[in-house]
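Section 5.1 Outputs to date
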Amino acid sequence: MPDRWRLRGVEWTNCNCAFGCPCQFNSPSTHGHCEAIGAALVHEGHFGDVRLDGTRFVLLFQWPGEIAQGNGTRQLILDVGASAAQQDALRRITSGEDTAPGSTHFHVFSSTCPRELDPIVAPIELMIDVEARKTRLRVGELIEAEGNPIVDPFGGGEFRGAIELPHGFEFTHAEVARGRTRARAGIELDLTESHAHVNVLHMTQDGVVR
């Protein structure tokens, strides 16, 4: 049976945890609550007959406690260059619709966020280099963010680490970096020198393509 939808591209995430993010290993978050931003660039994709190649989107999240405890708030930002059909497709995918329950991070995070703010359509400038562990993101006057390699405090050079999750619902391999985000959308974030990771985004309605 053909895929209902498929995304293949790159993704960047920045949260308020310490480098490595204990949440990735089913441990309590660094500060007892979570706030995060995710941004993705779709190289190839579709939702039914709607092509999603070249689209971009950003997701903002805040949870008052641990993610699994719920009560979170989420907001989607869509690129102004996307067509109405593409915007609707990305809204459905990122909200976990047309997705096997629990199979993607979109579904899991959406299910823990009973409060969903209205989507924003704005110009998204986004560069993600997984190998270099670098990201640059700007959304009009709403968001300015970046990701860079972690600096080794002893030698001063770049420190490289990775997260391997063979059965992960977002990725199987992610390069760990440090992030900085200033967001002034419906959700406001001020993250500095906190956990970030970059990864290949490749999934369907049934989960990560391995």
